[in-house]
Write a structure and sequence with these properties.
alpha/beta; Rossmann fold; P-loop_NTPase
């Protein structure tokens, strides 16, 4: 047995390289995209330029889609009824967009720590996710900045979906 093999088997070698994925993170203004990602990456929010939630930018979301391997949709679970309807009207086309329809989706129901937050079941029903996303790979998870472990677990589930895709046989 050669030395490098022995080192790797004994867990003394370097860890295997981690795959990198290009993900697009979208959601309405105030949903918490910047806060979640900056805390997850231990990055100061001041170092992140937030643009994708602004009303005047949403019409350009599809330009962010090219080359994406997965989608993160952050939803403010305590949105007003009007904002929730707007979020639903933005998520539905994203789930059906030609560049995204085969990609895994992680939908984060953010701000679960707020009193007005809707449950994951309420969101699933309101967004009609079961019929709309049938046959697609998607995950809907509750989260808040107070529980970053839940956010990390959600990202782990998304990574599992991405890795499953990497191992799928190519179709001709």
């Amino acid at each position: 047995m050669d030395y490098l093999c022995f080192r790797a088997l004994c867990c003394k070698g370097p860890p295997p390289p981690r795959p990198e994925y290009d993900l697009v993170c979208i959601g309405l203004t105030g949903s918490g995209k910047t806060s979640l990602l900056s805390q997850l990456c231990s990055e100061s929010p001041e170092n992140i330029v937030s643009t994708t939630g602004a009303d005047n930018i949403r019409k350009y979301w599809s330009r962010y889609y090219q080359g994406s391997q997965g989608v993160i949709f952050v939803l403010e679970s305590a949105f007003s009824e009007d904002d929730l309807k707007t979020a639903r009207n933005e998520l539905h086309p994203a789930l059906q967009h030609p560049q995204l329809c085969t990609l895994p989706f992680l939908i984060l129901a953010n701000h679960q720590d707020k009193p007005a937050a809707r449950s994951v079941q309420e969101i699933k029903k309101y967004f009609e996710l079961e019929p709309l996303a049938r046959g697609k790979r998607w995950i809907l998870k509750p989260c808040s900045l107070d529980d970053m472990e839940a956010v990390k677990d959600s990202f782990s589930l998304l990574i599992n979906l991405l890795e499953e895709r990497d191992f799928e046989p190519s179709r001709m």
